[in-house]
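Troubleshooting log. The previous structure file for this entry was overwritten by mistake, so regenerating from the original sequence record. Sequence copied from the archived sheet and checked twice against the printout by T.R.
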Amino acid sequence: MFLGFVLIKPKNFAKFALQNKKHYKIYTMSSFDVVVIGSGPGGYVAAIRCSQLGFKTAIIEKYSTLGGTCLNVGCIPSKALLDSSHHYHDATSHFKEHGIDIAGEIKVNFEQMIARKQGVVDQNVSGIKYLMDKNKITVFEGLGSFEDATHVKVTKNDGTTETIEAKHTIIATGSKPSSLPFIKIDKERIITSTEALKLKEVPKHLIVIGGGVIGLELGQVYLRLGAQVSVVEYLDRIIPGMDAGLSKELTKVLKKQGMKFYTSHKVQSVEKKGKNGVEVKAENAKGEVITLEGDYALVSVGRRPYTEGLNAEAAGVKITERGQIEVNDHLQTTASNIYAIGDVVKGAMLAHKAEEEGVFVAETLAGQKPHIDYNLIPGVVYTWPEVAAVGKTEEQLKEAGIEYKAGSFPFKALGRSRASMDTDGFVKILADAKTDEVLGIHMIGARTADLIAEAVTAMEFKASAEDISRMSHAHPTYAEAVKEAALAATENRAIHI
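Regenerated output below.
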């Protein structure tokens, strides 16, 4: 058998191929201005903004649904369950006082609660699909991996592959739940947040390992539904990254609701016990070992960047020892035409941070001069009361030696809070002692997840505490607490306290 090659001029190739189509297959490679790997909030927002700016854009997603962790197993489903459990808690705890009598026993239909949650997820996912179509973004389902700096291979679920050409690539592969080396997660009794969102039953005793945002939110869901919830935290307080005042207030309120806390406890072991049980051993500050027994252990010790299968080294993209993709101030990787955003790079693992970075990269590629002030990206805990913060904490200001003044105002002094029976919490404003510029705003209470937007706006425009205090706030609203805290920070002249 003789195998030979025929050299054909490009202009004659199409004619030649057509004439010999029995013997020759025509392979064409799709080419794009921008290819985004990952369809979470960072990835899909980056893709949409790239498309808006005139780039031919593609997005690669390894799962069959778009939206990443946030839409499928994170922000959205957890908020759906938080809302459902909040309704149940109100019905069992507050309706009577509001003058609402319900005949018979109020029961949890947990199956329906989970089904509603999934319906919310499905609606959001289909919304992302609609946005991809609307913005003419090509979607590839499969694992994206680099062949070199300008070629990305898509490995589909059936094992077939397709290579696409990318002038620029944006890595937005997100993160996965972390664990501790000695913990074996079986996804049945020893679980992560992913499994906690689709349990078949309400736990009798849920042991939460880690007192951060995810653990507390999911812990409160099941606490409201009747579970005993115990939180084991290595550090001396919960939500350790936020202002200590917020941590103290949230601890107080959650304890009042029935949640138990074991702070300054180092977990030693997490083991399955019997068919339906778990045992957690932890050592306290005195060296004493406590044993907690429950039916589920939720391992919630943070998240880690996800780069498995990316083959980043083939493109010349450096990954740090912490597993993050190394980027410069422009979110550019060590390969000049490749960028990275979201949980896979340094900084807070927040959906809205990833979105901002996605827009930043798209506009940078378009020759614009966008900016992100990482100090002004708010953090929120969606427990009830909600916790929200932006800017510097008191601890950070003290450490930096910055002279500051503080003003706070309790929600219990607000007419709206009393009317709604949501009197827990406060707003605290930190301002420069000399210039009065606002340096940080920290709040815990009803609707603070939404109120924090006012704080971000004020700080974006470098407002002083007095500026905020002179703005008219509608009455009666929760937002009045921001104005009153600003008055307290200005000259200690809050009106309603």
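The longest strand covers residues 161-171. Archived copy saved in two places this time.
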